[in-house]
Design a protein that fits this description.
The chain is of the alpha+beta class and about 525 residues long. It has 11 helices and 32 strands. It has an 8-stranded mixed sheet. Strands 25-32-31-27-29 form a 5-stranded mixed sheet, with no helix packed on it.
Length: about 525
């Protein structure tokens, strides 16, 4: 064989061997991305969400294993999360039972002189310590052996997932009962909420109990909000005792205003908790934005918290790189996110608190301001366990010291726990049933004698406690469907029948007696005419 023939043969073999590899590169494996799925219809009460599983089954049943891998399936929140291919994501978005299917957003932790600034020291001295309240801390976990925290921990759980779908709970699980703190952030947060004060300064609510829910990895980050929603769903299903949730964390994505539409699953979980009387507190984030907040702080039902200095520390350059040339008590920090959705301010620099390893450390960030508010909420709940979430938030907002943010001119209240206590110990809205009536007048028109006509309306309990409804009327009108006791969020269809006995016009009333303190009696006007 000539040299030229040998060369051609070698080249031909090389082309034949290389062909399959080139073909494989032409057909890449579909990328899978983390997605968050919110189902329709979105319900705002636990009772109404009883059919969540059936809707989940229907949507998941229309997906193949090649299109979607399930990571978290929720019991109370109408949705689920997992990894989807582009085709799977497109199929989810086209599904009639899906409200939103979005690529999930990552985030991270929103990295005691402060007690005097918010007058938590006065509350503590008067014996108000949060006894009877339970606070869930969604964070990197809590060091359960820390002397300041060991006796406060009442439970723990972990939801942690890497971007590739693998678990990052201790031992590599995606969910477990081990919420050990491998980063230290959660221990510092917990110390501000409920530290006993044996090493670090005493926490705002040292009498409160803590439930540690780990959602951050060993670097203080979360791969997506799915694990946050999973933690909130777990609290809804497993921890009815939790009346306060602290989330010192934020997505890297920021929002101009309220983000309930974009973060529908988060908003649904937070609203479900709020409806049962649980206050959800979230840090605004540390990006230094004067107009935007991260999630979950941007959810309308969350209590969002920005940071102020608790003293004069001179010129201060924060861990984010921004510098406050001058500092003073109640000066908003340069790193603190702000905007229209911001609710409250609290001390966030420079705070001394418990640290992993059984010690004490300094702590700076809206991550530190958030647990000041959560601790204050715990003290208020301990004093008035019958108060609604809205009433607790209103007490803190209405009694706080007004602070102007020089960057944007916004005025927000810096909490004053002693003043808020005075408010709740006076008149505060308790958890109560709230009556909503769909119609307050029924017109039956012309109805022949010896015949009848039935019209309906709905009574809904929009409150946070059971609602009793009793109805009374007189012939020729009759009512069915009452009396009834409605659970929060439940509704009853009431039927009213008109059976005339004479050829004339009738006017009557249906009087509803309710357990709603604001609407103890509701009148429904009734009109009809008897004809041949």
């Amino acid at each position: 064989m000539t040299f030229r023939a040998l060369t051609l043969a070698v080249l031909a073999c090389a082309l034949l061997v290389g062909a399959p590899a080139e073909a494989a590169r032409d057909r890449p494996v579909a990328e899978r991305v983390p997605v968050l799925v919110t189902l329709r219809p979105v319900r705002t009460t636990l009772a109404a969400n009883a059919s969540v599983a059936a809707i989940q089954d229907a949507v998941l049943g229309r997906l193949s294993a090649a299109e979607f891998t399930l990571a978290y399936r929720w019991r109370a929140v109408p949705g689920f999360a997992g990894l989807a291919t582009p085709a799977g994501l497109a199929k989810l978005r086209a599904d009639p039972n899906v409200l939103r299917a979005d690529r999930d957003s990552p985030g991270r932790a929103a990295d005691l002189e402060s007690n005097a600034l918010i007058r938590a020291d006065a509350a503590y001295a008067a014996g108000f310590t949060g006894v009877g309240a339970t606070v869930a801390v969604l964070d990197s976990g809590i060091e359960a052996t820390h002397p300041d925290l060991a006796t406060a921990i009442a439970g723990q759980h972990c939801f942690c997932q890497n971007p590739n779908g693998s678990g990052c709970c201790p031992g590599g699980a995606r969910e477990s009962d081990d919420a050990s703190d491998e980063e230290g952030h959660g221990t510092r947060v917990a110390g501000i909420v409920a530290g006993a004060g044996s090493l670090a300064p005493v926490g705002v609510a040292p009498g409160a109990r803590l439930v540690s829910v780990r959602v951050l990895d060993a670097n203080g980050e979360f791969a997506g909000t799915a694990q946050i929603v999973s933690a909130l769903d777990w609290l809804l299903s497993e921890r009815p005792d939790v009346r306060v949730v602290n989330m010192s964390l934020s997505t890297t994505r920021l929002y101009d205003g309220f983000c309930d539409a974009e973060a529908a699953a988060l908003a649904t979980a937070i609203n479900l908790l709020r409806d049962r009387g649980t206050v959800v507190v979230a840090s605004s984030g540390n990006a230094g934005s004067a107009s935007q907040l991260g999630a979950p702080a941007c959810v309308r039902g969350a209590v969002s918290v920005g940071a102020v200095f608790d003293g004069d520390v001179g010129s201060y350059t924060s861990f984010t790189g921004c510098t406050d040339a001058t500092t003073a008590p109640d000066r908003v920090t340069c790193f603190s996110n702000s905007g229209p959705a911001l609710d409250l301010l609290a001390p966030g620099a420079v705070i001394t608190t418990a640290a992993a390893g059984g010690g004490v450390s300094g702590f700076v960030g809206t991550s530190a301001s958030c647990p000041h508010v959560a601790g204050a909420v715990a003290v208020l709940v301990g004093e008035r366990p019958d108060a609604s979430a809205g009433a607790i938030e209103d007490a803190l907002a209405s009694t706080g010291a007004p602070i102007i943010d020089g960057r944007n001119g916004l005025v927000r209240p810096r909490i004053d726990l002693a003043a808020a206590l005075e408010a709740v110990r006076g008149a505060i809205e308790p958890l109560a049933g709230r009556a909503q009536v769909s119609r307050t007048a029924l017109a039956f028109g012309r109805v022949p004698l010896r015949r009848s006509k039935t019209l309906t309306f709905r009574v809904t309990n929009a409150g946070g406690a059971d609602l009793s409804v009793i109805g009374t009327t007189r012939a020729p009108f009759a009512v069915r469907g009452l009396p009834v006791v409605l659970a929060p969020g439940a509704a009853r269809t009431v039927r009213v029948t008109f059976r005339p006995t004479a050829r004339r016009a009738y006017a009557g009333t249906l009087r509803l007696t309710t357990g709603d303190p604001d609407r103890p009696q509701v009148t429904v006007r009734l009109r009809g005419t008897g004809t041949r």
